[in-house]
Amino acid sequence: MKKSITFLLLLCTFTVNAQIELTLKGKLTNAKDGNIELWQRTEGELEPVIENIKINSQGEFAQDISLVYKDYYVFFLNDSISLDIVVEGSQTIEIFGDANDLINTAVIHGSDNSMKILDFQRLSNALDSQVDSLGKELQLHPENQDEIVAYFNEIYGEFITKRDQFLEDNKFTPALIGTFASIDSDEEWDVLQRVILELDSCFNESPTIQRIVESYNQFIENAFNKLNSVPKIGDEAIEIELPNPDGKILKLSDYRGQVVLLDFWASWCGPCRRENPNVVAAYEKYKKKGFIVFSVSLDKNKEDWVKAIKKDGLTWKTHVSDLQYWQSQAARDYQVEGIPASFLIDKNGIIIATDLRGEDLENTLKEIFK
């Protein structure tokens, strides 16, 4: 499956140029005889475009630079202070400010999107500063945790409101890239997706945006493949061939004709150990009717594994493990991301239920063996 993103390129106001001529100039106070560099991000790394733009005794600098790509570049002052610069074509970009506090004083002419990225950076920095102060306050006065957390939620909510307004005001502009760090990809996937699509729509000549879109497409493809590879009810159980504590290889398919509870657990898993009495009770009640438990341990230490089997009274003989922890091949095949995890498999090797616990397991087995 290959997903791709198609966008309304009519919204984009940029045109492809074979050669881009950038004039970078400006005046910085407190930067006498300093040095400026311009770098470009390539495959996640920064590489220099030009490393020796001199600042004269009046704080002035000027440099004509030939570029290949419209893209995001990084302006470095004296190897440390940096500004993000958006080059959208042949243009003149002027930077003014105080070198002692460039982030807060810089004014960028000739590139509105560069200035907008800087404005959002200042907004983010202000939040970071407040959060740092709250962290110190919490360390000094842990008894005020509720009030401090409430205040954090308040200022963070205000920040998100301002960020969302920034997203609205700057739709389909290269400035949107400045918001990436503020987007929680788990909680705000829709926001992240929209920003990526809008950036691709109007700045897709940028190698940086091309890499972001490529990563996004790969993520979507992987997620789609993973979703379709997760064993689910109605699927045939995937074969498992692993050694038991004595080193003998046991195969899940050898137990066709019986109802099998495929149980992923580990000696170090508290919830698993607490659930084991329910599994033991089910096994003892239904084993003579054709029910077995095929236990796959995600342990790393054989001694701990065997000790837990004995201590919890897991008397069935179908215990297996490759002692590879979360890298267990069986766990990967069944897309197990948390334990306990279980799959109930019928006599034909078909998954008929997942993650049955306690009473649910008992009721399901009761119905099967009635």
Instruction: Classify the helix fraction into a percent range.
Output: 25-40%
Shape: elongated
Low-confidence segments, ≥5 residues, pLDDT <50? 1-17
- CATH class call of the largest domain: Alpha Beta
How many beta-strand elements? 15
What number of domains?
A: 3
Q: Main sheet, how many strands, which sense, barrel?
A: 5 strands, mixed
How many helical stretches? 9
Based on helices, strands and strand pairing, what is the structural class?
alpha+beta
Distance between the termini: 44 Å
Mean pLDDT over the full residue set: 91
The CATH architecture category of the largest domain equals: 3-Layer(aba) Sandwich
SSE pattern, N- to C-terminal: EEEEEEEHEHHHHEEEHEHEHEEH
Instruction: Return the CATH topology of the largest domain.
Output: Glutaredoxin
Instruction: Please list the strands of the largest sheet in the order they lie side by side.
Output: 13-12-11-14-15
Radius of gyration: 30 Å
Strand content: 15-25%
Description:
It is a single chain. By secondary structure, this protein is of the alpha+beta class. The protein folds into 3 domains: about 15-110, Carboxypeptidase-like, regulatory domain (Immunoglobulin-like), CATH 2.60.40; about 120-230, no CATH class; about 240-370, 3-Layer(aba) Sandwich (Glutaredoxin), CATH 3.40.30.10. The protein has 9 helices and 15 strands. It has a 5-stranded mixed beta sheet with strand order 13-12-11-14-15, covered by helices on one side. Strands 4-1-7-8 form a 4-stranded mixed beta sheet. A 4-stranded antiparallel beta sheet has the order 3-2-5-6. Helix 6 links the parallel strand 11 and strand 12 (about 290-295). Helix 2 runs antiparallel to helix 3, helix 4 crosses helix 5 and helix 6 (about 270-285) runs parallel beside helix 9 (about 360-370). The longest helix has 29 residues, at about 110-140. Residues about 1-15 have low confidence and may be disordered.
